Amino acid sequence: KLDQHPAGRHFLQIPGPSPSPDRVLRAMSYPTIDHRGPEFAKLGFKVLSDIKKIFKTEQPVIIYPASGTGAWEAALVNTLSAGDHVIMFETGHFATLWKKLADNLGLKSEFLAMPDGQGWRNGVQPGMIEARLREDTEHKIKAVCVVHNETSTGVTSDILAVRKAIDAAKHPALLMVDTISGLACADYRHDEWGVDVSISGSQKGLMLPPGISFNAVSPKAVAASEHARLPKSYWGWKEIIDVNKTGYWPSTPNTNLLYALAECLDMLLEEGMDKVFARHNRLAEACRRAVRAWGLEIQCADTAVYSPVLTGIVMPEGIDADVVRKIIYERFDLSLGTGLGKVKGKMFRIGHLGDCNDLTLMATLAGCEMGMQLAGIKLAGSGLPAAMNYLCEYPGGLLA
Ligand code: PLP
To answer: Which residues carry this modification: N6-(pyridoxal phosphate)lysine (predicted)?
Structure first.
């Protein structure tokens, strides 16, 4: 273990919070202004308008001073009533936590799951959702809730296919999507995909520190909110949407995070979202090539739904992934994501999202490789040349 403070920057390669670009950190350091004063409304209007371009929606996006969990709760309490039946899909730890939250609120949740734990290695199965909705001839199911990018496993589900499944079953259930770690890393289209509530957070693809989260809503979701009876006050959309029309919030917004949001929205929109997605996909592919060269397994078993945000790396039998992570943290000052829930100790996660470039990824892979060797893992070979060759041969949009 290093016994002095290590020189150089810490490598924060967990799948969120992601490292914030210097531009964003500087923006956040401006003095806090009066959130009821004239200057503030300019900032309010700007972020409320630009965030819509990221969700690809013309509808209101509600910004909460809260972590993603708050926005999960807001989505449910605004649209549903006690005892309402909702179906959720078991893709991993975050889907499981959202289900628990729904149960705590007094909803009747049902988990659709692939057999034999395969759900934690695959995406949402639209066919299973369609079949379940077809059985529900009385339309008791009020919402279908799915996670777009399952951060615990590194799987990005096909949300349009879920929309099509609901439509094919001719079912009126609302579609709610957690894109907390997917937004601004993987393509996302709130309006085009017919999502009723999209939930996201600041600390992943948006590259901000944790502390704000979002509900993008559809007209159908807003209509449902007029009859929903779960208790709500702080989370209530109506008052926020009304006050937002003036550029302000009903209670104190986190002003400095909104400065940071304005800056990151400028950065993302200057780059262009297609390039943002291509950048993430390219780093993810380089990472996966390294994992394969190590002779290790990727947690996501379906190549069609690999996550551009993170890669889950399965450890060989008998190796505790958290011991490997600890060695890497202590020796190389590199933070990696722990295995969560059912895969605790069995895998670790490399985040390649947000403010991460080729050399950040290469350093991360080098840290992983050295740490795994120190942990006594027999690798099939070095992963570094595989990743380097891919990054050299495939410049992506960088040279365009
Ligand atoms: N959903 C997903 C997919 C997440 O990745 C996370 C956090 O990592 C959450 C929900 C919970 O968000 P928060 O920890 O910001 O409350």
So the answer is: 204
C-alpha to C-alpha distance for 290 and 131, rounded to whole angstroms: 39
Residue 52 near residue 61 (C-beta atoms within 8 A)? yes
Is the CB of 133 within 6 Å of ligand 1? Answer: no
Among 269, 299, 326, the domain boundary falls at 269
Q: Answer with the one of 250, 269, 288 that is the final residue of a domain.
A: 269
Q: Which residues of the chain have pLDDT under 50?
A: 400
> What atom in ligand 1 is closest to the CA of residue 201?
15
Which residue has its alpha carbon closest to ligand 1 atom 13?
A: 68
Domain assignment of residue 300, given as a range: 11-19+272-399
Q: What is the pLDDT of residues 275-313, one digit of tens each?
A: 999 999 999 999 999 999 999 999 999 999 999 999 999
Q: Which helix (H) or strand (E) holds 201?
A: strand 197-201
C-alpha to C-alpha distance for 351 and 283, rounded to whole angstroms: 10
Burial 282-307 (b: 16+ CB within 10 A, else e): bbbbbbbbbbebbebbbbbbeeebbb
Residues 243 and 288 in one domain: no
Nearest CA among 332, 340, 280, 283 for reference residue 312: 340
State whether 290 and 257 are in the same domain: no
ipTM: 0.99
- The structure's pTM equals 0.97
Do 250 and 277 share a domain, yes or no?
Answer: no
User: Is residue 119 located within the same domain as residue 253?
Assistant: yes
* CB of 153 sitting under 6 A from ligand 1: no
Are both 248 and 115 inside the same structural domain?
A: yes
Torsion sign over Cα 238, 243, 244, 250: negative
- Residue to substitute in 18, 151, 349 for testing ligand 1 pocket (most ligand atoms within 8 angstroms of CB): 151
| Residue 26 is assigned to a ligand binding site | no
Task: Specify whether the CB–CB gap between 362 and 377 falls below 8 A.
Answer: no
Q: Which tens digit of pLDDT belongs to each residue from 135-164? A: 999 999 999 999 999 999 999 999 999 999
What is residue 120's predicted lDDT score, i.e. its pLDDT? 98
147 in contact with ligand 1, CB cutoff 6 A: yes
